[in-house]
Design goal:
By secondary structure, this protein is α+β, with helices and mostly antiparallel strands. The protein is built from 21 helices and 19 strands. The protein is globular, with a radius of gyration of 33 Å.
Length: 601
C-alpha cells in the first residue's frame, strides 16, 4: 500500500457510495459499492488473509477514487452503470451474448403472433415465456405450436380491417385462421391465443392430443412427410414433460443460484424453473474480487436481472441483503437462502452443477495455457531465445509456376492466432518461380514498415520471425534482418518440413523438439496457418483472373458500370458492336467513356 492510498483511507467518509480501483497505468480494474465507504475500502488493505482472487486484485491497485451516493440503493445503481461503461477486469461482466431467448406474444395487437426475442422490454404489455437456456430450442416450440394452433406467422401489421386480397398457403393447410382477409374475428382469434398461453404455462396435455390426432390423420392419408414432422413435435413435447419438477405446482416460476469457488476461480450456476418445468441450467465463471461470497452472488443476481424477467421466487446458496435486492429489482419477490424440501433439492442440483463445471473449466484453462502461453515459454527455453516470443510472425509463399505470386503473414500472440493482424502480399518485383526472392521481398516490405512505424499493424515489433523452410531459407532471410540493423532486436528461426527440424541463427545444427510437445505443435500451427492463408489468397486471385473480361482493363470502368453494361447488352461482343449513342443510354456511361470503350474494344 503506497502513501497516496494511505492518505486517502484516512479521509474516507462513512457514507454510502461507489469506489473505483485503478492500476499503475490508471486503468480501472474494479468497481464496488459500499454502505460504508471507509469500512469497505479499508478492508481491502488490511493485512488479514483474503481470497486469492481478491489478493491478486489488491496487488495491482495503485490508486482509488470514490463517489458518495444518497443511499445504498443509489450506490448500487451507480455501480451497475459504471461497470457497464468501463468493463473492469475483476468485476462480474455479463455480456449481451448471454441474453437467453424468450417467446413473446404482444397482447396489445388485435391478432398477435409469436416470435423469439432476446431482449425483454418490461411493462410493454407483452407476455414473455422463458428464458430457454439449454436443451430446449424455442424455435422448435413455435413450430409445434404452429402445427397445433392456427396462429399467424407472418409479420404483417394487422387490425380488424382485412389487409390481403387472398389467403396464404398456411390457411389452405389449416395452419392459420387468416385474420389478414377477415376470416376470423378478434374474439375467436383471442381464444386460440389462450390455448397457446395455456401450453406455454405448462398445460401439455391439450397440445399433445391435437398433435397426436393430426399425426394419425396424416399417416392414414399417407402423408408420411407431415407425419414425421408431427412425430418430432411429439418428441419435443415429451422432452418438456420430462423436465417437470415433481411436487411443484404448474404456476410456479423460480430461479436457483448456487455459487462455488476454490478461492481463485468461481462458478455461479443458474437453474431456471418456469411453469413447474426446468427450462435449463446455465453456468457462469466468475473472478469477482468481492471480499465475501455473498456479495459476489448479490452482484451477479443484480446484473443477471437487468436483461431477464424476475420470477416469483429466487433461491440462493448464500444469504444476501434481500430488502436491497427487492428495492433494486422493483418487484415484490420471495428470496430464500435457507431452502427446504423441493427447493433444497433444486439448490443441491445447482451446487453439484457448479462444482462439476468449475472442475471442467479449470481443466480447460490448464489445456489452453499449455497450448498457448505455456507453449510460448517452453519454446523460449528449448530454443534459448533472448526474450519471450510474445508476438510470433510466420511467412509463406504461394503460386503456380510463378503466376499470381502471393505471400502471407500470420501473427500469433501469446500462442494464439490473432487473425485481425494477418496480412496478404502480392509479390511485385520477382520474376518467375523464385520462392527465395519472393520471401526476401515480403520481409523487406514488412520490416521497412516497422522501421518507418507505418501502419498500426506493422508498428509493433515481432519477438520471433518463423520462416517455412530449412537452413538456406533462414540464412537468406536473416540477411534481410541484418540489412535493417535488427539482428540483435528480432530473433528468427525456420522450421523444415521433412523432419520438423528447427534451425536458429546461432548454430548450423538444428534443434530437434520432442515429437508431440506443446512447443513443436505451436510452431506447426503457425507454419500450417501461414500456408493455409497464402493458398487461400492465391486461389482468390486465380479465380479473379479466370473471370476477368476485356472490360476490366478499360480506365474509368468499375464493377458497377461493367455490371450495368452487361445487364444492358448481355455480352462483351454486343458491347463491342453497340453505337456511342446506345452506350450512353447505360447509367453511368458518358460520351467520353463511351468513346474509350469503343477504342479499347
Amino acid at each position: 500500500m503506497n502513501e497516496r492510498i494511505s492518505a486517502k483511507l484516512r479521509t474516507l467518509t462513512t457514507k454510502p457510495g461507489v469506489y473505483v480501483m485503478r492500476d499503475k497505468n490508471g486503468e480501472i480494474i474494479y468497481i464496488g459499492k459500499a454502505k460504508n465507504l471507509k469500512n469497505r475500502v479499508s478492508q481491502y488493505f488490511h493485512s488479514s488473509p483474503k481470497p486469492s482472487k481478491v489478493q491478486a486484485m489488491v496487488d495491482n491497485i495503485d490508486d482509488f477514487d470514490y463517489f458518495i451516493a444518497m443511499s445504498e440503493l443509489d450506490a448500487l445503481a451507480l455501480e451497475s452503470n459504471l461497470i457497464h461503461k468501463h468493463q473492469p477486469f475483476y468485476n462480474i461482466l455479463l455480456k449481451d451474448g448471454k441474453m437467453f431467448p424468450y417467446i413473446k406474444i404482444d397482447m396489445k395487437e388485435d391478432f398477435p403472433r409469436l416470435e423469439v426475442v432476446r431482449k425483454v422490454k418490461k411493462d410493454d404489455g407483452a407476455k414473455y415465456f422463458g428464458p430457454y437456456i439449454a436443451g430446449i430450442d424455442p424455435r422448435e416450440i413455435l413450430k409445434t405450436i404452429s402445427f397445433a394452433f392456427k396462429i399467424r406467422t407472418c409479420k404483417s401489421k394487422l387490425s380488424t380491417t382485412p389487409t390481403a386480397k387472398r389467403e396464404c398457403l398456411n390457411y389452405s393447410l389449416g395452419l392459420c385462421l387468416a385474420p389478414c382477409t377477415g376470416r376470423v374475428t378478434k374474439e375467436d382469434y383471442a381464444e386460440e391465443i389462450k390455448k397457446v398461453v395455456r401450453f406455454l404455462n405448462g398445460n401439455d396435455d391439450e397440445i399433445e392430443e391435437i398433435i397426436s390426432q393430426k399425426m394419425e390423420t396424416a399417416s392414414n392419408l399417407q402423408n408420411f412427410e407431415r407425419a414425421i414432422e408431427l412425430r418430432e413435435c411429439l418428441k419435443m413435447i415429451s422432452k418438456l414433460k420430462q423436465r417437470v419438477v415433481a411436487n411443484l405446482p404448474k404456476d410456479v416460476d423460480k430461479d436457483i443460484f448456487a455459487y462455488h469457488s476454490d478461492g481463485l476461480n468461481g462458478v455461479i450456476t443458474v437453474v431456471v424453473v418456469r411453469a413447474g418445468k426446468i427450462l435449463g441450467v446455465a453456468n457462469f465463471v466468475q473472478s469477482d474480487a468481492e471480499l465475501e461470497e455473498s456479495e459476489t452472488l448479490f452482484n451477479f443476481v443484480s446484473q443477471y436481472y437487468q436483461t431477464t424477467l424476475v420470477p416469483h421466487e429466487i433461491i440462493l446458496s448464500h444469504p444476501i441483503d434481500e430488502s436491497l435486492l427487492c428495492d433494486y429489482l422493483g418487484k415484490n419477490i420471495k428470496i430464500i437462502s435457507n431452502p427446504h424440501g423441493i427447493n433444497l433439492r433444486l439448490l443441491s442440483m445447482a451446487k453439484e452443477n457448479a462444482v462439476e463445471y468449475l472442475s471442467k473449466h479449470l481443466e480447460k484453462e490448464k489445456l489452453a495455457y499449455s497450448s498457448g502461453l505455456g507453449a510460448v515459454k517452453q519454446l523460449q527455453e528449448k530454443l534459448g531465445l533472448k526474450e519471450l516470443p510474445f508476438r510470433m510472425e510466420c511467412y509463406d509463399i504461394s503460386h503456380i509456376s510463378g503466376s499470381n505470386k502471393v505471400a502471407s503473414m500470420v501473427v500469433f500472440v501469446n500462442g494464439k492466432a490473432d487473425k485481425k493482424q494477418y496480412r496478404k502480399y502480392k509479390i511485385k518485383t520477382v520474376q518467375g518461380n523464385n520462392d527465395f526472392e519472393s520471401l526476401k521481398e515480403t520481409l523487406t516490405r514488412r520490416l521497412q514498415r516497422y522501421v518507418d512505424q507505418n501502419g498500426e499493424s506493422f508498428s509493433e515489433k515481432p519477438n520471433l520471425l518463423v520462416i517455412d523452410g530449412g537452413k538456406g531459407q533462414l540464412s537468406s532471410c536473416f540477411e534481410i534482418l541484418k540489412s535493417f540493423g535488427l539482428e540483435d532486436k528480432i530473433e528468427m528461426i525456420s522450421l523444415a518440413k521433412r523432419l520438423e527440424e528447427v534451425y536458429t541463427t546461432k548454430s548450423n545444427i538444428p534443434v530437434i523438439l520432442k515429437y508431440g510437445s506443446a512447443e513443436l505443435k505451436l510452431l506447426q500451427r503457425i507454419r500450417d496457418e501461414s500456408h493455409r492463408f497464402a493458398i487461400t489468397f492465391h486461389r482468390q486471385l486465380r479465380t479473379k483472373d479466370q473471370t476477368k473480361t476485356e472490360l476490366d482493363d478499360i480506365p474509368g470502368l468499375g464493377k458497377v458500370k461493367i455490371n450495368a453494361l452487361l445487364s444492358a447488352f448481355s455480352t462483351t461482343e454486343n458491347i463491342r458492336h453497340a453505337s456511342i449513342e446506345e452506350l450512353c443510354h447505360v447509367k453511368g456511361i458518358h460520351e467520353a467513356l463511351a468513346h474509350e470503350i469503343k477504342k479499347r474494344l
